Amino acid sequence: MNTRMIVGAVALLTAVATVASTAPTDASWVDSERATSSVTAGTVAAPATSCEGRNGAPNRLWLSPGTGGVDIAEFVITLSTDDAVSAWDSGATPEGFPLLSSGDPVVVPADTRAVAWGITGGWSMGYAGEVSVAAVAPGGWVSDTVTYDWTIEFDWIGLGYGTCTAP
């Protein structure tokens, strides 16, 4: 009986193996697939700026892209004041630089060399605030902000005197 059981078991396993086998296909792989990628991180350098307080003329902020970073598309400039100003200079300076006023950030193209701000009139009055600028690269990446403190004061006969310094 042992022989019969062994023969029966082998026959049963052969039948099961035949039924459960995989059918042949046309699929085949000739070689493996691989992909590679590289990513380079860039930085948006803070703008290289200088700020000039001027007497008898609007204060001026010189603009230049920073060094060592990616190309930039524009500058974003924000001018704020400690006190309300009744009459900002408007338009452009005699050199053609745009005049800013306090409020919403102003966006200028990356090739803008300078912006300015001034206050019209005032006797024995003084104003102070901050001007900040950041560089923006294509895609919206923004640099660190560069900030200056500024003042514009008028003497008793109405002559204006400006300062602009790094804090």
Q: What's the CATH C level of the domain at 50-162?
A: Mainly Beta
Beta strands, count: 8
Mean pLDDT: 84
Q: What gyration radius follows from the Cα positions, in whole Å?
A: 36 Å
Termini Cα gap = 103 Å
CATH topology of the domain at 50-162: Immunoglobulin-like
CATH architecture of the domain at 50-162: Sandwich
Shape: rod-shaped
Beta-strand proportion? 25-35%
Which stretches are poorly predicted, pLDDT < 50 over at least 5 residues? none
Element-level helix/strand string: HEEEEEEEE
Coarse structural class: mainly beta
Report helical residue fraction.
Answer: 10-25%
The major pleated sheet works out as:
5 strands, antiparallel
Q: What spatial order of strands do you see in the largest sheet?
A: 4-3-6-7-8
By DSSP (H or I, 4+ residues per run), the number of helices equals 1
Q: Any key phrases for this structure?
A:
Immunoglobulin-like, five-stranded antiparallel beta sheet, 167 residues, mainly beta, 29% strand, 8 strands, rod-shaped
Question: What can you tell me about this protein's structure?
Answer:
The protein has 167 residues and is mainly beta. Helix content is 11%, strand content 29%. The strands form two sheets. It has a five-stranded antiparallel β-sheet with strand order 4-3-6-7-8, with no helix packed on it.
Write a concise synopsis of the structure shown.
The chain has 167 residues and is mainly beta.
